């Protein structure tokens, strides 16, 4: 049985307050790049639903840049490693790996001929290094600054120059090759955060946390003047030149972006991005006709020069690990939630994402289910059940102000769509919620981990950390305990099949066990044990013939109910990231989410 990764709903850039983010652009103008965790994410600028993820770094990647030829990408990580890999093949074959500095890399620049690379950051002996991309041979020294270097750029025309911006508030200029320190510029009064040459190399601009932007001559490094006075009320996090070199885009912690006219050094357009802290702008890129900025919340804004108060497109999603996943009954929408409490609704066909608005949990969401009227029920570690109701047609739901207090931390939930009954397993009890109120509860003497309800038989299965599946019967609002099913490890997930005939339970002992719901005996004598680590989640296909499981071992396995010996392993389904949730859209399409904040859609045709 073959499988393919249909598409990836990509993670957003991982942002940090007070830390600029570097976006990379493709010289052909088709793609842009950013990083999240140990992934480099490549997105199509015209159709951002098309994305590719590179996951070969073993620790957090900070920056990735295309070579001017467009054939290679250099990415630098928190350990000081630089990997140079190709963009042409789907496998992104590694060309070279170097360790130029001994600490986090913050910025990378290529020379115009794609031969030399300069990297800067927080090294132990030095804060930057210039070397040949082919061999790693040194072509000069980056010295003369006393604190970590935040930004670097290579002059795109001869004579070659390198400029760097440092946390000692200075801009340093280097001449070469081989590159030697020439001078420092001391106009900035706080951290210098960004330096960028104009496309023809005749000028370069620097920006800093003092809110100022300065312009210098590209060849002589002489100060030309200050742009704006000052340019922003908050620190400037990033700058980007227009392709013709006549304008400059800047983004700032004062929650605005601006376009500056180079000739007059005055502001041409101001973009107001909002009033909340998460509207601080931490990065920007000018790619062809597209002007992009990144907010502190991680969302990517496509700026609209004709309407500066409203971006013409906003890319939403997650930039923290995804903890929960559920499917809307219409099977066109899937909801994901991350450990910072952000809930996102995705259109399965187009990959378009919208954040659920309103007062949510504000912290980790442990479970979600969709109800009959299309509203979304969520439980979080603020010990409440909340409901988000659909707004207008085509809009994402919005949280209502009403919440149901649960009294202790919820671990899992399930929902019967027909009569709006929800069962929530908290660390102390099983609670039955009908409509919007708690009807009854049953104290527990074990720690529950997961819960599933079969709407037909009204059986409730609760997995426990005590290595058992506990079965109950639900009579309107009362739960009556029934059988116990023994496992060899803590039970991690339980699911009833859509046709009500089967129950599957997964455990931390790497096994899946299939039970027949007539007598809760084993449905077949094969145990499914091909995962190499704890199984986190399971899901039945709509026709009840297949089961998908996702594990800590990063792989996804599709099992066949009628032919228990047959299965398909999708290895490295989420490379270097455990799988935290799984659901079927239809009988041949599976969606998985993981700790890498990516949502992947798989095609798993029947044999």
UniProtKB/TrEMBL annotation:
The keyword Magnesium does not apply. InterPro entries: Quinoprotein_ADH-like_sf, WD40/YVTN_repeat-like_dom_sf, WD40_PAC1, WD40_repeat_CS, WD40_repeat_dom_sf, WD40_rpt. It comes from the Eukaryota. SMART domains: WD40. Keywords: Repeat, WD repeat. This is Actin-interacting protein 1. Belongs to the WD repeat AIP1 family. WD repeats lie at residues 54-95, 185-217, 229-270, 315-356, 531-562.
């Amino acid at each position: 049985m073959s499988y393919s990764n249909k598409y990836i709903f990509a993670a957003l850039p991982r942002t940090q307050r007070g830390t600029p983010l570097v976006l990379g652009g493709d010289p052909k103008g088709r793609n842009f790049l950013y990083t999240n965790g140990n992934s480099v994410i490549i997105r199509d600028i015209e159709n951002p639903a098309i994305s590719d993820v590179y996951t070969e770094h073993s620790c957090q990647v900070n920056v990735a840049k295309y070579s001017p030829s467009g054939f290679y990408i250099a990415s630098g990580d928190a350990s000081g490693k630089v990997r140079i890999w190709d963009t042409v093949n789907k496998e992104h074959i590694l060309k070279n790996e170097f360790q130029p500095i001994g600490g986090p890399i913050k910025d990378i620049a290529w020379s115009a001929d794609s031969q030399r690379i300069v990297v800067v950051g927080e090294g132990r002996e030095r804060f930057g290094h210039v070397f040949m991309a082919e061999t790693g041979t040194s072509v000069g020294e980056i010295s003369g600054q006393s604190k970590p270097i935040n930004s670097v750029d290579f002059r795109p025309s001869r004579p070659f120059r390198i400029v760097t911006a440092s946390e000692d508030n200075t801009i340093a200029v280097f001449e070469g090759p081989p590159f030697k320190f020439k001078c420092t510029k001391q106009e900035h009064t706080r951290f210098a955060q960004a330096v960028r040459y104009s496309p023809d190399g005749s000028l370069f601009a620097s920006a800093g946390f003092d809110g100022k932007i300065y312009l210098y001559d590209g060849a002589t490094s002489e100060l030309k003047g200050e742009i704006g006075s000052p340019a922003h009320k908050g620190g400037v996090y990033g700058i980007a030149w227009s392709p013709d070199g006549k304008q400059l885009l800047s983004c700032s912690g004062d929650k605005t972006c601006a376009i500056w006219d180079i000739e007059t050094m005055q502001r041409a357009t101001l973009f107001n991005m909002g009033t909340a802290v998460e509207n601080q702008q931490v990065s920007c890129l000018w790619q062809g006709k597209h002007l992009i900025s990144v907010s502190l919340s991680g969302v990517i804004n496509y700026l609209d020069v004709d309407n500066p108060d409203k971006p013409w497109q906003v890319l939403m999603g997650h930039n923290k690990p995804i903890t929960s996943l559920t499917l809307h009954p219409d099977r066109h929408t899937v909801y994901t939630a991350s450990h910072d409490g952000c809930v996102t609704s995705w259109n399965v066909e187009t990959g378009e994402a919208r954040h659920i608005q309103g007062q949510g949990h504000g912290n980790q969401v442990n479970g979600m289910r969709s109800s009959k009227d299309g509203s979304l029920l969520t439980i979080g570690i603020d010990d409440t059940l909340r409901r988000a109701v659909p707004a207008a047609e085509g809009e994402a739901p919005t949280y209502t102000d009403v919440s149901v207090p649960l009294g202790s931390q919820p671990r899992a939930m399930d929902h019967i769509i027909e009569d709006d009954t929800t069962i929530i397993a908290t660390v102390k009890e099983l609670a039955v919620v009908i409509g919007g109120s708690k009807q009854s509860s049953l104290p527990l003497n074990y720690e529950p981990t997961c819960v599933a309800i079969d709407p037909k038989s009204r059986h409730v299965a609760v997995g426990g950390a005590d290595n058992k599946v506990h079965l109950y019967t639900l009579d309107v609002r009362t739960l009556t305990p029934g059988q116990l099913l023994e496992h060899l490890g803590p039970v991690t997930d339980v699911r009833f099949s859509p046709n009500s005939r089967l129950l599957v339970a997964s455990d931390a002992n790497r096994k899946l066990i299939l039970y027949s719901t007539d007598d809760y005996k084993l449905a077949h004598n094969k145990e499914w044990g091909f995962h190499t680590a704890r199984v986190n989640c399971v899901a039945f296909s709509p026709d009840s013939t297949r089961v998908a499981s996702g594990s800590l071992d990063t792989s996804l396995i599709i099992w066949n109910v009628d032919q228990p010996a047959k299965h398909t392993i999708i290895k490295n389904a989420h490379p270097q990231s455990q799988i935290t949730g799984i659901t079927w859209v239809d009988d041949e399409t599976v969606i998985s989410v993981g700790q890498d904040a990516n949502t992947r859609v798989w095609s798993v045709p029947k044999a």
